[in-house]
Amino acid sequence: xxxxxxxxxxxxxxxxxxxxxxxxxxxxxxxxxxxxxxxxxxxxxxxxxxxxxxxxxxxxxxxxxxxxxxxxxxxxxxxxxxxxxxxxxxxxxxxxxxxxxxxxxxxxxxxxxxxxxxxxxxxxxxxxxxxxxxxxxxxxxxxxxxxxxxxxxxxxxxxxxxxxxxxxxxxxxxx
Length: 175
Fold this sequence. Notes:
Layout: H1 10-19, E1 25-29, E2 38-45, E3 47-52, H2 60-63, E4 73-75, H3 81-92, E5 99-102, H4 106-114, E6 119-123, E7 134-138, E8 144-150, H5 156-165, H6 167-174
């Protein structure tokens, strides 16, 4: 068994799967699974807004009382599934709040909020903890699906790998 972890967007993962470079890819998904691929959801992650600890905003209701949020929004690039889901839900709720500062990782969202550059969009990651000086506000928006992707049938070893890494398995282990 050889395991290599490499970062990439869903289109890169899809191309590597189709060319046979990789056997299993992991990616956040939005909507349908790319044609010709199979998938299994590994985690469903809740979106959160990261605000300075001293902010008067305590709940989602506080945040969205207005139709336009005045604080700069810090998030991953707008092409990311999380950001597209977030903007779709804001439109549905008739709220305008567009990204002012795009960052390359969720770690940077917390740090930039702590430094006073605005408020951030992030995910409630298992085992994750917020940076000192920030608070997370849970959103009742659609979850972000993190999934395993593959072509054809899984080998028995790949099946075991996915079973061991699944949310259900890790939840059972924690009990």
